[in-house]
C-alpha cells in the first residue's frame, strides 16, 4: 500500500426496489421536470445571438485611412508575431498614380489569413505599426470547404463605403500612440476617439 487512503470496495447485493429501477427512473424524471421551469442556458443560435464583450476578438479587418487608401504596408510584422503562422502576404511597390489606393510606397498585393489556423489571439493587431489590422466582433462563418477559410484581401479589406468600426478596440496604449505627434500620420478615427486633438 502506498497510502492509507485506499478503501476496499464492497459489492453488496441490490435490494428488490433498486433492482426494479423505479426510484432511479423517478429521480431522473424529477431532475428533467425541474429543468423545464429553469432559465435556459442555451440560445437558439443563429436566430438568437448573445451580446459580445467589447474586447471580443473575431474576424479581422484591414483598415483604410481617412482618404480610403489601404493602410497596410506589407511589413510582415503581423505574420512574424502570429503564433499560429496563419498570415501570408506578398509585397509590391506602389506605382505612380496609385497613391489614392495605397498609403505607403510598399503595399500587400496579396494578404491571406487562414482562419482555420488562427487562434484569434490578437497579436497581429498589437504588432501592426500602421494600425492596419484589427480584430472585430464579427464571427467567421462556418462552411463545409476548407479552402473557403483562407481569407484574402477581398474579405479582409474594409469596403470604402462601409468602414468597419473598431473604435471599441482602441486601448489606452493605442490612444497614447495616437497622441504622440511623431506618429500623427497613423491616426485613425481621429474625430471619434480624439475629439479635441488638432489635425495636422
Ligand atoms: S489573431 Fe493571432 S493567430 Fe490569428 S492571425 Fe492574428 S496573430 Fe495569428
Ligand atoms: S497589417 Fe500591419 S503589421 Fe501586417 S503587414 Fe500590414 S502594416 Fe505590417
Note the topology:
Elements: H1 16-20, H2 22-36, E1 60-62, H3 77-81, E2 87-93, E3 106-114, H4 123-127, E4 133-135, E5 150-151, H5 153-156, H6 172-179, H7 190-193
Antiparallel strand pairs: 1-4, 2-3, 3-5
The structure holds iron/sulfur cluster (SF4) (2 copies).
One iron/sulfur cluster binds at residues 81-84, 86-87, 113, 118-124.
Key traits:
5 strands, Alpha-Beta Plaits, 12% strand, alpha+beta, three-stranded antiparallel β-sheet, disordered C terminus, binds iron/sulfur cluster, 200 residues
Briefly summarize what is shown:
It is built from 7 helices and 5 strands, in the order ααβαββαββααα.
Tell me the structural class.
Answer: alpha+beta
Number of strands: 5
* Major sheet strand order: 2-3-5
Determine the strand fraction and express it as a percent band. 5-15%
Distance between the termini: 79 Å
Radius of gyration: 27 Å
Give unreliable regions as ranges: 189-200
In CATH terms, what is the fold-level topology of the domain at 60-193? Answer: Alpha-Beta Plaits
Largest beta sheet, briefly? Answer: 3 strands, antiparallel
Question: If helices are DSSP runs of H or I spanning 4 or more residues, what is the number of helices?
Answer: 7
Distinct small molecules bound, one entry per kind: iron/sulfur cluster
What helical percentage do the residues reach?
A: 10-25%
- CATH architecture verdict of the domain at 60-193: 2-Layer Sandwich
N to C succession of SSEs:
HHEHEEHEEHHH
CATH class of the domain at 60-193: Alpha Beta
Average pLDDT score:
86
Q: What form results from the Cα inertia axes?
A: elongated
Amino acid at each position: 500500500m502506498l497510502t492509507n487512503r485506499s478503501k476496499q470496495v464492497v459489492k453488496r447485493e441490490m435490494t428488490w426496489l433498486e433492482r426494479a429501477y423505479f426510484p432511479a427512473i423517478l429521480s431522473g424524471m424529477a431532475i428533467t421536470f425541474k429543468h423545464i421551469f429553469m432559465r435556459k442556458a442555451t440560445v437558439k443560435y443563429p436566430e438568437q445571438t448573445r451580446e459580445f464583450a467589447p474586447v471580443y476578438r473575431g474576424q479581422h479587418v484591414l483598415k483604410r485611412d481617412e482618404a480610403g487608401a489601404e493602410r497596410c504596408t506589407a511589413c510582415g510584422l503581423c505574420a512574424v508575431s502570429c503564433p499560429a503562422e496563419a498570415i501570408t502576404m506578398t509585397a509590391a511597390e506602389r506605382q505612380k498614380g496609385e497613391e489614392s489606393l495605397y498609403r505607403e510606397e510598399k503595399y500587400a498585393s496579396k494578404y491571406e489569413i487562414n482562419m482555420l489556423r488562427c487562434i484569434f489571439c490578437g497579436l497581429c493587431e498589437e504588432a501592426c505599426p500602421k494600425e492596419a489590422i484589427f480584430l472585430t466582433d464579427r464571427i467567421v462563418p462556418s462552411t463545409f470547404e476548407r479552402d473557403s477559410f483562407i481569407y484574402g484581401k477581398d474579405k479582409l479589406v474594409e469596403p470604402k463605403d462601409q468602414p468597419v468600426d473598431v473604435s471599441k478596440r482602441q486601448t489606452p496604449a493605442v490612444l497614447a500612440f495616437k497622441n504622440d505627434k511623431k506618429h500623427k500620420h497613423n491616426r485613425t478615427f481621429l474625430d471619434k476617439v480624439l475629439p479635441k486633438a488638432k489635425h495636422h
